[in-house]
Amino acid sequence: MSARTILVVDDDDEIREIVGLALEVMGGWTVLSADRGAGGLKLAREHRPDVVLLDVMMPEMDGPTMFSRMQVDPVLRDIPVVLLTAKVQVGHVQVWDSLRVAGVIPKPFNPATLTDQIDELVAEHRRLGAHGRRQPHSA
């Protein structure tokens, strides 16, 4: 069985490094990374990752915009996307509420449990057929 591949798209170098190390070392993932949405779309088309971990707030193209572009691309639309954000407020309408993402992981996150969180969210997303409403996943 080949290693699973995840694309991490975040404009914060430290977040990309921490996430990459956690997923490679603890999860056995092959990690691709991009610091902007446009670069993330290019890498997603080239490599067709198993999952995309996508920051919500980025310059030039934010996470929800990148996700929307993935949804209209026949090559990318079935790739599960997990959002990573510092902007979680319980009880408030969130920008991702109307998106069919696999889930949302709030920052700060626990690198030791990140692989399990992503696996659980993607498994639930597949069980629900990408139609269930997503709530932030607690660490």
Share of β-strand residues: 15-25%
Text of the CATH class = Alpha Beta
Number of strands: 5
- Name the strands of the widest sheet in spatial order: 2-1-3-4-5
What's the helix-strand series? EHEHEHEEH
- Rg result: 14 Å
Under CATH, the topology can be stated as: Rossmann fold
Distance between the termini: 29 Å
CATH-level-2 architecture:
3-Layer(aba) Sandwich
Poorly predicted ranges (pLDDT <50, ≥5 residues)?
131-139
Name the overall outline: globular
Please name the fourth-level CATH homologous superfamily: Response regulator
> Structural class given helices, strands, pairing?
alpha/beta
Average pLDDT metric = 86
Query: How many helices?
Result: 4
Number of structural domains: 1
Helix content: 25-40%
Major sheet characteristics? 5 strands, parallel
